[in-house]
Every structure is written in C-alpha cells, then in structure tokens.
Amino acid sequence: MCRFIETIQVRDGKLQNLAHHNRRMNETRQAVFGMVDQLDILNYIEDCPESGFYKCRVVYGREVCEVTFSAYTMRTVRSLRLVGSDTIDYRYKSTNRKELEALYALRDNQDDVLIVRNNLLTDTSIANVALEKEGVWYTPRTPLLKGTKRALLLEQGVLTECDIPSDEIYSYSHIALFNAMIDFQSLVLEINRDTVIRI
C-alpha cells in the first residue's frame, strides 16, 4: 500500500538534496513497516526533465510505487492565520492530509495557516518556518514535519532550533516559509498584525 511522499526539487535535470530525501524515506519505511533495506530514489528515476524547474513526486510504502514530474509554481502567501490543534500528528509525510486540510480551511481571508500545537509554533499547511530576531533565524524545535530543507539548513548552521510560544510571535521581525520546493528566504513576510493574524 502506498501512503507516503517525497517531493523533490529538480533544477535543470538535477534532483536537489537527494541524500536527505533518501534518508527520510528509509527512516519512514523502517519506523512504519519495519523495513531495514535502504532504497535510493535515483534508481527509480526515468525521463527526468533536463531543463527548467520541476517537482518530482515520489510515492512509496514498503517500496517505491510511483514517480511523477510536474512544473512547479510557488503559491502566493502574503498573510497567515494562527490556528491551534494539540492533537495533529504529521510526523511522516503522508498522502493523508485530512488534518492539515481541515486546519487550512480555517484560514478565513488569509493565504495560509500557521499551526500552533501545545502553545508552540510548528509549520504552515505546506512549509516549515523560521522566524528572525536580531539577524538570527530560529526554527521551531518540534515542527509537524521535519522537512528535508530544514534538515539541510540546520546542518549548515543557517537555522537555530528553539521553542517559539505563539504569544511571542510579535517579538520576531520576519517569518520565512520554506520546503523542498521553496528555497529559504525566497518567501519572507514581515511579522505584524496585518500579515500574521491571531484568533
């Protein structure tokens, strides 16, 4: 049964950050299915676009069962609404996004939601986040999903993990949304009461 996804950025025929995608896929397979063999996504890639900016979607369970490519356009996000759920669990990148979609439906007039769990900031419906204070970028210690771009940025020392209580959000100056397809600092919002709305 296929139930998990890796979404990989493809630039001019090259799959970006593949080591982190392979690692997360194999860690998920081991945690959920008890599989200890190591798969390499590259072995399942055929007809990769040779130029341009694409999204590679890998669907897998115990084995890789589907690989597709599509052109990518970044969603416009200019505002966020804080919404809370202390029970949401999205530790594995699953095809089942019902909990995320239910929270996304609460965004009202904003473009996306910033999800609060146990009074701490986590992620938006589509991206990890980092918040800037005095030139330092902090990312939530307990995100909903430990993204592959997040893992790379932590390794590189670009981000610092910490708990970010939701009631302290306005003490930060900017918020960056990023994921495998959205490069860090390509989507940044100034934090104020017009761009980040508390319920």
Automatic annotation (TrEMBL):
Record carries keyword DNA damage: no
Molecular-function GO terms, alphabetical: lyase activity
InterPro entries attached to this UniProt entry: Aminotrans_IV, Aminotransferase-like, BCAT-like_C, BCAT-like_N
Top-level taxon in the UniProt lineage: Bacteria
Keywords for this protein: Lyase
Protein name (Swiss-Prot/TrEMBL): 4-amino-4-deoxychorismate lyase
